[in-house]
Fold each of these.
Amino acid sequence: MEALNLPPFEYKVTKSGANYLIFDILRRKQVVLTPEEWVRQHFVHYLINTLAYPKSLISIERGTNYNKLQKRTDLCVYNAEGKPHLLVECKASYVPITQEVVRQVSTYNQTLRAPYLVITNGLQHYCWQVNFETRQFQPLQEIPVFASPL
């Protein structure tokens, strides 16, 4: 797999038939190692090891409904009250981050209402703070670190 623009982490890859599998520390099982999963696993470890988000607040491929359609979010990080805080869309490294990808994530977020959106392909990362009252997206230079409640 390709080196990404994210900190390296210790991972375990095994082969099962025609597939390679990587151990997912959140789901606590081996999952098929696709290019998108490679990015997702790196980003999960980045959230936990660099930005100090607790594993217990991160959900992978959570189902949500939008316009009567079932959608799945790549990563959703919750705050201490259990409300969505950070929504992350992961793409394979060869997938460009386009306006359509931004539209996809913001559409999911109309239901979840997370105040922060992140899109990454492992090489480029974009983060916005969302103001739902004004419907404005403020680009951020960095992804917010976890702020534990006092």
Amino acid sequence: MPFTEYTFNAENSVDRIFYGRIDVKKSSSFLFYRENSVVQHLIHHLKYRNQEQLAPFLGDWYGQILKEDPGLQGIIDFVIPVPLHTKKLRKRGYNQVTGFAKKLAHHLEATFVDDLLLKTANTKTQTKKGRIGRWQNNKALYILSDMKALKNKNVLLVDDVITTGATMEICTEALLQVPGIGVYLTSMAVVPLT
């Protein structure tokens, strides 16, 4: 498996994706995502072939690594998956990130919540869009249902794949409306910078 071996205490290329864009404490990712790779096939099967069991499997694996990471020990209060719109959730039957995020929360001794960050509109797949297209498509699509619950808390926001970082950027902008919040980012995989 193409592990990134990035940690939450050393600078890495996932951090660099977000420099100058959003104020996050730290970013990382579990695996490298390349076209026609094992990771691409795993995530494709997870999202489009009803292989929901892959998410907790990967989350348990990565969670065991993260609980040993000194950059995260005892810091995270909430683990939040990037949400799906309710229509897409009904159609797919599950959020592909949920099982992964739940396992991370378990290993980090944090609370998993999937009802505080909400997606307000159903958008088409973003896999064929560039950074600007993703950003324009995502603008104002994510809202918070309860800002008070996150006040002065540290949140780990979780996605499946970080490509351009646009989705994580828009979700983080919504989270940063909360006073005193600290946002950390992670994903199952990241497209390597070229």
Amino acid sequence: MGELTDKAKGLANEAIGNVKQASSNPQTRAAGEAQEHKGEAQQLKGSVKGAFGDKI
């Protein structure tokens, strides 16, 4: 995957995670928090790829 793909997937996961965190169900909130962190990691991965190129 390329830099932009990773960043786009990261943004989507963060957005979905934020929506899930608004739930009144504790399990859904926890899943949303995990998904938000996953999105943050994907964006970081995309940034690293951008800095070093898609060779990583």
Amino acid sequence: MERIGSAAASAQVTGLGWRCVLGALRTTVRVASLAEGVEVAGRAAAATGGYPGLRADVRHDRVGLTLQDPGVADLTGRDVAAARAVAGLGLRLDPLATGTRSVQGVEVAIDALDAAAIRPFWRAVLGYAAEPGRDGPDDALVDPDGQGPAVWFQRMAEPRPQRNRVHLDVAVPHDEADRRVAAALAAGGRLVSDAHAPRFWVLADAEGNEVCVTTWQGRD
């Protein structure tokens, strides 16, 4: 289906207990137990006819529900229909009270002079993927499992000579670390330090932006 845009989607779910955030519809349902959370997630899945664009984050006190059409990684009429179906269950949908904050989305922006030169490195080191139909040098990378924040690239007009003051840590299974490091290096990265491996490796992209690949080993 075609994208309908955030403004249109937001207008169509007004009053139903959903909010539009970063190209997705999100809400929260408070529950009294993990078992009740599983039940709520199941009811939502049934109401939407098993729509693959529905994701449920089930906790002991709440269920976070997210809708985004996986075919276009954006909002379509399918998401609006699914939001209405869930709203029809009579659940108390409250996007402004997840327990400590409202629903939200998080993105990480990496400054870049040449996004095309560093994007393959970040794709490899994070184990991320392109969104459907959006695989250009300036397009964001996303977690294919929908767990981590999206990463996108902010164009810079000129380089910054100082060392970057923010870096990412990517924690992986101990028997995945070597493969992940090798993939990142093959994608244009460089090894800054392996002095503390296998606890962590420090890598950098072609413009010097750093990331640590970490494991549990060496931390006891």
